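In response to reviewer comment 3 from the previous cycle, which asked for concrete evidence that the modeling workflow produces usable outputs, we include below a single protein chain processed end to end. The sequence was submitted unchanged, and the resulting structure tokens are shown without manual editing.
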Amino acid sequence: MKPKKTTSGNGKDMPPKLQHVKIYFDQKGQPDEAAEAFFKHYKSVHWKTKTGCPIKDWKATAANWIWQHRPEKPLSIEIKLKLQFQNSF
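The workflow returned the following structure tokens.
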């Protein structure tokens, strides 16, 4: 009989448990909905990156997800220039 694998919740345990993802997002001040969206997205792509590589550290991926989905993203230089020229006429 094969011993049952337990997960500690660290970033290297793949795939993570939803409970561990929720705890991590809570520690980062994020709502449960954000944790669930992250979990569902990466579960649907089989815990692989956009290029198809397996994710090795879900916490690093989650940190990037949180950064990319922050509510107050700074404007890119291109958008700033467009706004500047639109408002100058």
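The chain is about 50% helix and 0% strand. We consider this sufficient to address the reviewer's concern, and the full set will be provided in the supplementary archive.
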